[in-house]
Amino acid sequence: MVVIGADVHKETHTFVAVDAAGRKLGQVTVKAVTAGHGEAFGWAVREFGPDLTWAIEDCRHLSARLERDLLTMGQKVVRVPPKMMAEQRRIARTRGKSDPIDALAVARACLREPDLPVASHDEASRELKLLVDRRETLVRQRTATINSLLWRVDELDPGHAPAARSLDRKNTQQQLHSWLNSLSGVVAELALEELDDIITLTSRAAVLERRIAKLATAQAPALLALPGCGPLTAAKLVGETAGVARFAAEAKFARHAGIAPIPVWSGRTEGRVRMTRSGNRQLNCAIHRIAITQIRLTDSLGKAYYDKKKDQGMSTTEALRCLKRRLARIVFNTLRTDTQRQATTALAAAA
Asked: Per the structure, how many domains does the chain have?
């Protein structure tokens, strides 16, 4: 077996091939376009045969096109976290940093960790991810504009400042718009312009939210039935998971989400663990929202589990960590249920 590590950039991709012992066999640099990916594939098959594994540094948008092209060619593709690549480069004998050095580190990291997540060609989850990311961008822009507008309103007349978290309501927007129209000066002019931007951003974010909710309902109905998991959270989980089938077990999914605990014991402290700061923080955040919501629901199973851990002497942080780990297992199994349902539906429709 030959592993080909890829260091991806916006304009070029560098590939380095290694054997099972990690010895470098060759390298090539191609343009970051579909034709360049085909050139790299032809080079690899010609030089090393068809038994190939492509290890790609997981750089989201930079590696997305390369993954899709390789999967279309029927290749096996695994994702290597940048942190793992950087650690492999640090312990290597070769000093410095370059694209071939990084690609070699990616390939050797893949050899060292044979159970890395396999990339999958999942257009449905990618579509949800793109829509969720776009909505979050609009919300961030709206929040920044609201903050600027509030400073201008405070300068004009603090008594007309809208209530907290009310600028997404049409009634508040209309009242503030009417008042600003009655004023003159540059500050009022800029405030009015920012209010128009807020109204536009709110409308566009609402349209996206409805579209996301419709897709999430179709793709993850079982996930939406989970207490504390709304359409946006469900869409975030589906989009960031990028195909639950690429995880062989729920423990690997929990590790990918940064929820699996890290052991920190020695001697008489056997069994002590702590939370991890690595992993996919977007997945972690989505499961964290579910956990916090369930804790606030008096009749939920999550609340009962959380209280049991607190009664065992755990701190609030420790009990929350345990609940998130339990929810990671539930989310994983629920995503598998939704995926199997979709597969069954597709087979039935094809027949």
From this structure: 3
pLDDT-derived band at 36 (thresholds 50, 70, 90) equals very high
Do the Cβ atoms of 208 and 134 come closer than 8 Å? yes
% of the chain beyond a pLDDT of 90:
60
What does each C-alpha distance from 10 to 7, 30, 103, 315 come to in angstroms? Answer: 10, 11, 15, 46
Gap between the Cα atoms of 196 and 174, Å rounded: 10
Structure tokens that stand for 68 in this block: 């899709």
Strand partners, 273: 263
Q: Cα separation of 53 and 5, whole Å?
A: 9
Confidence of residue 60 (pLDDT cuts 50, 70, 90): low
Range of the domain at 257: 222-340
Is residue 127 situated within a structural domain? Answer: yes
DSSP calls for 117-151: PBP---HHHHHHHHHHHHHHHHHHHHHHHHHHHHH
User: Rounded CA gap, 35 and 20, in Å?
Assistant: 28
- In this prediction, residues 315-330 reach a mean pLDDT of 93
How far apart, in whole angstroms, are the C-alpha atoms of residue 8 and residue 62? 6
> Do 327 and 226 fall within a single domain?
yes
In the listed set 112, 140, 164, which residue is the last one of a domain according to the structure?
112
Token reading at 104: 């070699």
27-42: b or e for each residue (b if 16 or more CB lie within 10 Å)?
bbbbebeeebbeebbe
Q: How far apart are CA 236 and CA 213, in angstroms?
A: 11
Cβ atoms of 201 and 142 within 8 Å: the answer is yes
138 token code pair: 């609009």
What's the pLDDT tens digit per position in 228-241?
A: 999 999 999 999 98
Q: Look up residue 257 and give its amino acid.
A: A
> Which of helix, strand or coil describes residue 302?
helix
Taking Cα atoms as reference points, which of 322, 331, 269, 324 lies closest to residue 293? 324
